[in-house]
Amino acid sequence: MRCLFVLVALALALPTAAAAAPARSIGDEGLSDPRQRQLPARHRLRIAIVADWVRASQACDDSPKRCERFHFAPLLLDFAYQLQFAKYAMFRPSIGIGYNVGNSRNAMPAVLQPSLFAGYQGKLFGAAAGWSFIFPFPTVANQDNGHQGLAQPALWGNHALQLELSLTSRLDRGALNFGLRVGGMKTHLIHLNLDLKRWYPIVTFSLGWYFEVGKRRRERAAASP
C-alpha cells in the first residue's frame, strides 16, 4: 500500500516537472518560444508578388457601336530590403519588375517599379506611407491588340503616393506578409484625342515572404559556449 501511494505521488508530480522543463530548456539553449510574437529582425529581405490596379480612360467605336474601359494592372515580382530601427520604425526600399495583365497591355506591356516606404512595424501589424515610380515600357499610345480591338491608352511619368496596411506572421525561419495600399497616381495620359495630366486612384495588393539576414550566424553565436 505504501508503494502505491509513492507511485501516485510521482505520477502527480510528473506533469508539473514536464511543464517546467521546456521553459528551462528554451532559456538554456537561447531559443525563443514560437507561441510568443517577437519584434521583427533589424535586417530583412522580402520577395513578394505585387499587383497594382488603375482605372484608365475609355474608347468607343461607331461601326459597330462598342465601348471599352481600359485598366492598367501591373503584376510584379518585387524585391525589397527592410530596416527595422527605433524599435517600431521601418524603412523599405524595393524594386519590382513584371507584366501588365490589364487590357492596356499592348500599349504598355512591361513594367518596372522602384518604391520607398517608411512607417510603423509591430509584431503583427504595420502601417506605412510611400512613393513609387511606375514605368511601363515600351509605351506606344493608341496601340491595339491586332485583332480589330480599340486603341489603348498610354500612361507616362507615373508617380504614386500611397498608404499601406500590412499583416506579418512568423512561420518557421521567415515571415508571411500581406499588404494593402491605397492612394493616388499622378500621370500623363495619352489616348486618342485625350492628353491629360491628372491624378488617378491606385490600389495595390501584395503577398510576400521575409527572410532574416544573419539569423543563422546569430543562432550559432548564441549556441557557442
Automatic annotation (TrEMBL):
Keyword line: Signal
Residues making up the signal peptide according to the UniProt record: 1-20
Official protein name in the record: Uncharacterized protein
Native species: Nannocystis pusilla
